[in-house]
Amino acid sequence: MGQILDYASHAPTPHSRLVCISANMTLLYPFWIVIVLYGEWLVAWLVLGHPPEPSLDDPLHIHSANWIHGVTGVSLVSAIPVMIVALALNLLVIIRQSFVGRGIVRLLAVLVLWSALFVLLRWDPGAVVDWWMD
């Protein structure tokens, strides 16, 4: 007769698990940027006793809060490369998934989370980004 075709999904390999975990971590990165940026601003507020103001309170010269400035800088500078990696890894996970609904949800999550981050940074409530960049 003929060949028996195997249409069942295969067991995940360690490589595919690593890709999936990495893709999930890139979905959390926008939250990390918000936590670090606004965390530095809140620590500076606690140290100064008033909300930090752009052109007045330099984040590098607030002695108890300057330790987090480098972490925030690296996080902000690496946002674009991490976003590109997030798109690539999540598209790879979507291609490997057999269930279309989960792929659509994952793609929407990537687009919404990263778009929301850039909208938040552009909107800049409280002039936090302006204060940090100053």
Question: In a nutshell, what does this entry contain?
Answer:
By secondary structure, the protein is mainly α. Helices cover 69% and strands 0% of the residues. The protein has one domain.
How would you characterize this protein structure?
- With 134 residues, the chain is mainly α.
- It has one domain (15-133).
- Helices cover 69% and strands 0% of the residues.
- It is built from 5 helices and no strands.
- It has helices at 14-48, 69-77, 79-96, 100-123, 128-133.
- Helix 1 (14-48) runs antiparallel to helix 3.
- The longest helix has 35 residues, at 14-48.
- The mean pLDDT is 89.
Walk me through the topology:
Layout lengths: L13 H35 L20 H9 L1 H18 L3 H24 L4 H6 L1
Helix pairs in contact: 1-2, 1-3, 1-4, 3-4
Strand composition percent: under 5%
The major pleated sheet works out as: none
Averaged pLDDT, please? 89
Total DSSP E strands: 0
Structural domain tally: 1
Structural class: mainly alpha
Number of helices: 5
Helix content: 55-70%
Distance between the termini: 75 Å
Shape: elongated
User: Which ranges are low-confidence, i.e. pLDDT below 50, for 5 or more consecutive residues?
Assistant: none
> Taking Cα atoms only, what radius of gyration do you get, to the nearest Å?
21 Å
Descriptive terms for the model:
single chain; 134 residues; mainly alpha; 5 helices; 69% helix; elongated
